[in-house]
Amino acid sequence: MSRSFDVVVIGAGPAGYIAAIRAAQHGMSVACIDEWKNRDGKYAFGGTCLNAGCIPSKALLESSELYHRAQHDFKKHGISTGDVKMDIATMQKRRASIVRQLTGGIGGLFKAAKVEGLVGHGKLLAGKQVEFTPIDGKAEILSAKHVVLASGSAPIELGIAPFDGEHIIDSWDALELEAVPQRLGVVGAGVIGLELGSVWARLGAKVTVLEAMDDFLFMADRDVAKVAAKEFKAQGLDIHLGAKVAKAEVKGKVVSVTYADKDGDQTIEFDKLIVAVGRRPVTTGLFAEDAGIQLDERGFVVVDEECRTRVKGVYAVGDCVRGPMLAHKGSEEGVMVADLMAGEVAEMNYDVIPSVLYTSPEIAWAGKTEAEVKASGRAYKTGSFPFTASGRAKAMEQTAGMVKIISSQDDDEILGVHIVGPMAGELISEAVLALEFSASTEDLQRTIHAHPSLAEAVHEAALAVDNRALNFPNR
Ligand code: FAD
Ligand code: NAD
Fold first, then answer.
1. Which residues of the chain have a pLDDT value below 50?
2. What's phi and psi for 53, nearest 5 deg?
3. Residue 266: what pLDDT?
4. Is 240 a catalytic residue?
5. pLDDT above 90: percentage of residues in the chain
6. Left (φ > 0), alpha (ψ -120 to 50) or beta: where does 450 sit?
7. How far, in Å, CA of 138 to CA of 398, rounded?
């Protein structure tokens, strides 16, 4: 006899495991299936985010930032350390330990919430049945009232630069390097290219980034992108825009890359090449042909605004469906579908999903860019405030960057907030809340911000929208 559950979730990344826990909180019986295997051969919940994405990358960003600051900033504080040394093995051990703690923690969360965590492969069959094949075990059929597909994504591989796991590598390999490559190439100046490029540049690699687009950080507000480009250049990231990579070949221990840019054909050699040109949804073996699931032309599971697939009772969330490939987007979709399954009214505000690049300085935004507002035809006003005028930023010796706010000219509604600077990823939460509540610039202006804090820069930028900045000359 097949086991039956109210909910079976396939995938225990941030979209799937959150959906499972939320559904269990509603009193439903839940199983969550995952087959993620780490490089040490151990299976772990948490998906890309915890095992090979958000968490390990931030662990290394922090370590490399501290190393960089110890070398370059401590002197200004009057601290001398002698020769600052780094030990990659310890850095990587720390990264692996954080990943182990957090992924292991999901097992604990499942236990506490009474979610049955199942290790193995899940496949949706017709009639809301799920074939579960445990690792080294016999397949079993689970029946469910509701199924959630949360199978995530994988790096896009370029035919002209196939991954070999040694010289031409993906983001996961790049997080597990055991030595600093002397010459590191990165294809793609997107989020991964810039974050991982920063890590290895701070640790001593000569990093060259080849980006196909002519505009740097094309998805960000232009003012923010301009500041970021200047800062990254100063840090030694050599970013080539409009670079069309033709071929990457491994010759002995070296990767030879040919590309064309405005100056013609170029060839450059690297010790390692990270290819980070985006990710694709993972759906191979996820559902049977007669299960009724439809994929779009890019391979994403087709869902509506409420993450419902074409099959009643089957939902899909996270990176395997349309929208930004972000952990917090997937998690909120997981919460929404669990609430819908429980009969509640739930929705996602896809217009207010924060984006953060954990570079130094950090870059974060929510809402529309100035170009998007301009294109919409809505009359608008803007205000900005530089961190050079922030007492807290000065005390931190991190004054690069600014906060920019775009608001509606007619009714003062905040339309977009763009930050490049220290802790931008934390500061953006205030903007997200303001946008979520359709706050006006005046709401932010009249909100008391602690002094001295980085958040005062958000306050001052709001004041600057109406030429009322108090700690910086207005236009
Ligand atoms: P995933 O996390 O990919 O999880 C899917 C899970 O499903 C996997 O464990 C997989 O094994 C399992 N699975 C798939 N098919 C099956 C099957 N048939 N049976 C059983 N199990 C299956 N996002 C952020 O928001 N912030 C960041 O700072 C950030 N940093 C990142 C850094 C890097 C280097 C990378 C690569 C990504 C980063 N991301 C970040 C993106 C983030 O990791 C993804 O958006 C997020 O993990 C998507 O969650 P998900 O649950 O949809 O999929
Ligand atoms: P991305 O879409 O952010 O950037 C890919 C970049 O590669 C783009 O700038 C694109 O123009 C460029 N590109 C594409 N094809 C190219 C080619 N042939 N040659 C040169 N350049 C090329 O993708 P990513 O950096 O791989 O990240 C994947 C996903 O993971 C993103 O959607 C991102 O949201 C997510 N992620 C998020 C974070 C974060 O939130 N901090 C961190 C890492 C990854």
1. none
2. -140, -110
3. 95
4. no
5. 99
6. beta
7. 57
Looking at ligand 2, which residue's alpha carbon is closest to its atom 43? 192
Q: Which two tokens stand for residue 462?
A: 């709001």
DSSP labels, 12-60: -STTHHHHHHHHHHTT--EEEEE--B-TTS-B-SSHHHHHHSHHHHHHH
Closest ligand 1 atom number to CA of residue 175: 34
Nearest CA to ligand 2 atom 35: 325
Contact in structure between 316 and 307 (CB atoms under 8 Å): yes
Look at the alpha carbons of 177, 239, 230, 215 in this order and tell me if their dihedral is positive or negative. Answer: negative
Give the atom of ligand 2 at the shortest distance from the alpha carbon of 155. Answer: 26
Count of alpha carbons within 13 angstroms of residue 355, beta-carbon side: 24
**Ligand nearest to the backbone CA of 195:** 2
Between CA 137 and CA 243 the distance in angstroms is 48
Chain-centroid distance of CA 198 in Å reads 15
Q: Residue 355 CA: which ligand 2 atom is closest?
A: 40
Contact assessment for residue 275 and residue 157, using Cβ atoms and an 8 Å cutoff: yes
Q: Which two tokens stand for residue 239?
A: 């970013």
Q: How far is the CA of 294 from the centre of ligand 1 (A)?
A: 21
- pLDDT tens digits, residue range 246-286? 999 999 999 999 999 999 999 999 999 999 999 999 999 99
Q: pTM of the full predicted structure?
A: 0.97
Q: How far is the centre of ligand 2, averaged over its atoms, from the C-alpha of 48 (Å)?
A: 15
Q: Are 195 and 65 in contact (CB under 8 A)?
A: no
Give the span between the Cα atoms of 319 and 7, in whole angstroms: 20
Ligand 2 mutation pick, 279, 298, 355, 362, max ligand atoms within 8 A of CB: 279
The Å distance, Cα 153 to ligand 1 centre, comes to 6
- For residue 65, give the 3-state DSSP assignment: helix
Residue 1's pLDDT is 63
Residue 33 Cβ inside 6 Å of ligand 1? The answer reads: yes
Please report which residue ranges of 322-470 form alpha helices under DSSP H: 327-341, 370-376, 391-396, 424-436, 441-445, 456-465
Taking CA atoms only, the protein residue closest to ligand 1 atom 47 is: 49
Positive/negative CA dihedral, 35, 41, 43, 45: negative
Q: What is the pLDDT of residue 301?
A: 98
